[in-house]
Amino acid sequence: MTATLLAPPETDAAMAVLNISGLRLALPQGEIRALESAPGIDTDETKPFSVGWVNFKQERWPVYCLSQDLSLLVIVPKERRSCIVLDTGAGYIGILCDSLGLGEQIVPEQHQELPPPMRSPETPILGLIALNEEEVACVSNAERLVEHVTRLVNL
Q: Which residues have CB under 8 Å from 8's CB, separation 6+?
């Protein structure tokens, strides 16, 4: 099964919001290279810490599953229904999520940077953003998310 290509966002403000066990993680929609259904993931002969493979650009790339606290899981919860594909600079990786909302329009006034004591080069979280009056999402980007997964895999 081949991943579905996503169209680039119409504006820089278009965000994708991943739901991972209740954690809302927002990243620029244009940084997601493809979207795949979780049942389409090949689970044969996985790499260490991966849960399968996604086909993208005529090659297989490892897929990882994160928990609500962004640690690696090797057993996929049944809620994981989607897989996003991110560019690593040297290839691609897939990250599973429960659901994915596309096209969230975020205005700068809704974004809050993390307080200095919470900032760390090791966290993929860059800030917080209000999605509506009741929901808040953590803000990240593909580069920080890929760095985070790479660091976890190489521990």
A: 30
Tell me the whole-structure pTM to 2 decimals: 0.86
Is 26 in contact with 139 (CB distance < 8 Å)? yes
Q: At 69, is the secondary structure helix, strand, or coil?
A: coil
DSSP 25: E
Listed as ranges, residues in the chain with pLDDT below 70 are 1-13, 104-111
Tokens for 67? 């928990």
Quick check: 64 and 53 in contact, CB under 8 A? no
Tokens of 28: 């620029």
Rg of the chain over Cα atoms, rounded to whole angstroms, equals 15
Q: What is the pLDDT of residue 112?
A: 74
Q: Walk me through the domains of the chain, giving residue ranges and CATH numbers.
A: 4-153 (2.40.50.180)
Q: Would you state the pLDDT for residue 106?
A: 62
